[in-house]
Amino acid sequence: MATDPVRLTSLRPDGTASARLDDGTFLQVPGALPGDEVTWHPGRRRGRVQHAELDRVVTPSPDRIAPPCPHDAACGGCDLAPLRHPARGPLFGAMLASVFRQSDPVPVLTAPSPDGHRARISLRIQDGQLGYRGAGTHAFVPITTCRIARPEIQQVLPALQRVVATVSDPALDRVDVRSDGTGVAHVFHTTGPVRPGTFEQLAALGDVAHGRTVIAGDPTRWLPVGEHRLRASPEAFYQVHLEQNARLVDAVCRRILDVQPERVLDLYAGIGNFSIPLAASGVPVVAVEIGGAALKDLAASADRANVSGRVVTHATPAERYDVSREPFDAVVLDPPRAGAGIVLERVLALRPKRVVYVACQPTAAARDLHRHLGDYRLTEVFGVDLFPQTHHVEAVMVLDRPR
Ligand SMILES: C[S@@+](CC[C@H](N)C(=O)[O-])C[C@H]1O[C@@H](n2cnc3c(N)ncnc32)[C@H](O)[C@@H]1O
Q1: How far is ligand 1, taken at its centre, from the CA of residue 293, in Å?
Q2: Count: domains in the chain
Q3: Which of 41, 64, 87 is the last residue of a domain?
Q4: Which of 250, 289, 313 to mutate to test the pocket of ligand 1 (most atoms within 8 A of CB)?
Q5: For 206-261, what is each residue's pLDDT tens digit?
Q6: 379 pLDDT band (50/70/90 cuts)?
Q7: Domain limits at 203?
Q8: Is the CA virtual torsion 224, 226, 229, 231 positive or negative?
Q9: CA distance 394 to 381
Q10: 3-class DSSP state for residue 119?
């Protein structure tokens, strides 16, 4: 039986809505929004945390909207699509304040629009159709449009759909559609050998790769980052929101340059999103990145920006890089979702003036700070809304050495 109605008040880092009940219980309800008044069915309980299944939204939040996407009911892509876009800033600000134990809401650089921003999407291919995973399942959900993709990606989807349907090769598993803000590249992934003629048909799409192998045209993209262009080869990671990434890079680089460093360490450097702008500001940078292909991209972009003389790269896991081999007075740390862990401790042991930690999984970063911050001070935290319509948010933390 469902419970009495409860008004949910907060957003949790995993996108569920929550409320603190009168008896001190923390109620967590997936599928509801903060501001919704809901009835719920109790699920498992851990200490004071009560997991729940949504029964019914009795009174919707004033920020609840009907998402205009035709695939919203089934597609698992945009879990916060029913939330009015301007409500994201305050909700994420409060959520980040709770994660990083700040007394005031954390500022969030919100994205100007909920739609048309993703510069790369990854579509599954099944039975000659394109699709995403379903909400909370692995089920295949066919799609014809994707509102969060940039317009130039949306534009090529009908042609991509036609070609995939015509080819109808069961070995085709996934296609990444990657934009640099103007042109689009298609990068296919397969589960086994393709039929004769498949790649020839896919070549009609223009700039096409199979994994890292070029099939047609030039599937490399050159991404705008401020005044720079960064090369991204077909499988290289790059931040999905080009305009918001430019704001992120500007904010991070300004905070690094504020301490007038003589040499910067950029750990988890990728294709040089931070390394290239920092080197272009005149500071020598050491970039550490596990992916050799990404570092080749970084080197090409350094050449293009005439900063090769100021960038040294190491293709190695950050955990294996001996941070004490050279002195650094500022460090950028941008690890994958699992966080930096022991790497943060080693970095702080170098006693840099400042570390700017960029995190796509704020709870992992908060755990790292809790374990490894030592006598460093968390002097600033802010969010950057890189993933509108989802519960994901980028968090940036400034860690300063005590004077
Ligand atoms: C969140 S991305 C950030 C990349 C870059 N800073 C940017 O803003 O585009 C994390 C990067 O860390 C790299 N990576 C993953 N595990 C790593 C490790 N153990 N050591 C070094 N780099 C790693 C990935 O290849 C990826 O390029």
Answers
A1: 12
A2: 3
A3: 64
A4: 289
A5: 999 999 999 999 999 999 999 999 999 999 999 999 999 999 999 999 999 999 99
A6: very high
A7: 120-219
A8: negative
A9: 11
A10: coil
